[in-house]
Automatic annotation (TrEMBL):
InterPro entries: Mur-like_cat_sf, Mur_ligase_C, Mur_ligase_C_dom_sf, Mur_ligase_cen, MurD. It is found in: Cytoplasm. The keyword Endoplasmic reticulum does not apply. Residues 314-425 form the Mur ligase C-terminal domain. Cell wall formation. Catalyzes the addition of glutamate to the nucleotide precursor UDP-N-acetylmuramoyl-L-alanine (UMA). Gene3D superfamilies: Mur ligase, C-terminal domain, Mur-like, catalytic domain, NAD(P)-binding Rossmann-like Domain. Keywords: ATP-binding, Cell cycle, Cell division, Cell shape, Cell wall biogenesis/degradation, Cytoplasm, Ligase, Nucleotide-binding, Peptidoglycan synthesis. This is UDP-N-acetylmuramoylalanine--D-glutamate ligase. Residues 106-291 form the Mur ligase central domain.
């Protein structure tokens, strides 16, 4: 079988390794340059590859194609493959076809990375052999090929879900769905919602589907259809109407106590004992508790994992306190909903740094929070007009076009006791390679302020 892989990053290289182990004739093609780490793996394993070009004669003869999630279905090469009837799948789909492991899968517009890492942390701390894969950790295909585990915790983006067809999650988590990546979905929110709900594909009645009840889009979709897996809601409110919610299990709040009911077991924990703070992290904790309870983790081990979980890099990560001002790196907040939760969790006056590549954002949902919490907005982007138009009547706004300019502007507004919050609301691609680079550079520059 001829296996062609498009994209030479983590997922593509992992797919190549699995393809080689399966005895396929593997060829990898990346239209950009392949980084040195992954190129060295391909060379070592004697896997043929090309970079800087896609050679049609070598690609269109494939029996099966695995494409990077970053490649849209609309590009000419994918259209050409589809026209020839060649199957195009994701690396996750390839790995799933060759693994019998239990799959705990997490998706959502916001919270999926923290929830994924939290579930994995609890499982490992409890002594379970669990792999970490998808958007975080190492390639699932590479692990199936070289370092197989009986259980995987897999973070799934909508792009990865779009390339999954026979893959089946045993435990699925959908945190929420808010407008994001609409440029990949014909600017139709419904298309993006449909993509997220693909996490339910192939799940049977023995599966567990954990969903964010407080997200109206998700709640209405779940209530409006008959699902095969057990559907379990989690909410920041009181115990939901379980008959309406579609099940007999749930997670909810009793004052400051997180209460989780599943499989005739009850778990209770004070939210203040969870190491990561804020309402959004209560949601993440609830989803993680439900998943770990179903995976068979002892309640004491779940509580211990929740107490010992470290901060997630680039997600409300405290960087430093300089002259009494706390600097927080929330670079992973690339959409409005993420920024909402970040601002909601702030307890001191905020100098807010936002901006980047706008993805069709509607900022109106932030107005009330900005009135309550933000003493100044520092815009950081190539084109800040939309942010300026939305917030200039609510708080002072500074227009800056680099990280250095932004931090200089921050000094004019931030006083002892304030918080400087980098929570951009936007993608990073106008000034930075990705949100990780944006966060790393922010931390580096802040530490130089001392």
């Amino acid at each position: 079988m001829k296996l062609v892989i498009l994209g030479g990053g983590e997922s593509g290289t992992g797919a190549a390794l699995l393809g080689k182990k399966l005895g396929y004739e593997v060829f990898l093609s990346d239209k950009k340059n392949i980084d040195e780490v992954h190129k060295a793996i391909l060379v070592k394993e004697a896997i043929p590859f090309e970079e800087g070009v896609h050679t049609e004669e070598r690609i269109l003869v494939a029996d099966l194609v695995v494409k990077s999630p970053g490649i849209p279905d609309t590009v000419p090469m994918i259209k050409a493959l589809q026209a020839k009837g060649i199957e195009v799948i994701s690396e996750i789909e390839l790995a799933g076809r060759h693994s019998d492991a239990i799959m705990i899968c997490i998706t959502g517009s916001n919270g999926k990375t923290t929830t994924t890492l939290l579930i994995h942390h609890i499982l490992v701390q409890a002594g379970m052999d669990a792999g970490l894969a998808g958007n975080v950790g190492h390639s699932l295909a590479a692990q199936v090929a070289e370092n197989a585990h009986p259980l995987y915790v897999v973070e799934l983006s909508s792009f990865q879900l779009d390339g999954m067809f026979r893959f089946q999650a045993d435990i699925a988590v959908l945190t929420n769905v808010t407008p994001d990546h609409l440029d990949r979905y014909d600017y139709k929110f419904e298309n993006y919602v449909n993509s997220k709900f693909r996490i339910l594909n192939n799940m049977g009645k023995e599966g567990l589907f954990i969903y964010g009840y407080d997200c109206e889009v998700v709640r209405q979709r779940v209530i409006g259809q008959k699902l095969l897996p057990q559907a379990v809601p989690f909410t920041y409110g009181g115990e939901p109407d379980l008959q309406q919610a579609g099940g007999t299990a749930c997670a909810y709040m009793e004052g400051d106590t997180i209460v989780v009911r599943l499989d005739e077991k009850v778990f209770r924990m004070d939210k203040n004992d969870v190491s990561i703070k804020g309402r959004h992290n209560v949601y993440n904790a609830m989803a993680a508790i439900l998943a770990c309870m179903r995976a068979g983790v002892d309640p004491g081990a779940i509580a211990a994992g929740l107490k010992s979980f470290p901060q997630v890099e680039h997600r409300l990560e405290t960087v430093a306190v300089v002259a009494g001002v706390t600097y927080i790196n929330d670079s992973k907040a690339t959409n409005v909903d993420s920024a909402w939760y970040a601002l909601d969790s702030m307890t001191h006056p905020v100098v807010w740094i936002a901006g980047g590549t706008d993805k069709g954002n509607d900022y109106t949902v932030l107005y009330e929070l900005v009135k309550q919490k933000v003493k100044a907005l520092v815009c950081m982007g190539v084109d800040n007009r939309k942010l300026i138009e939305n917030f200039s009547g609510i708080c002072p706004v500074a227009d800056t076009h680099s990280l250095e300019e932004a931090l200089a502007a921050v000094q004019k507004y931030a006083c002892e006791g304030d918080t400087v919050l980098l929570s951009p609301c936007c993608a990073s691609f106008d000034l930075f390679k990705n949100y990780e680079q944006r966060g790393e550079l922010f931390k580096e520059k802040v530490r130089q302020l001392k």
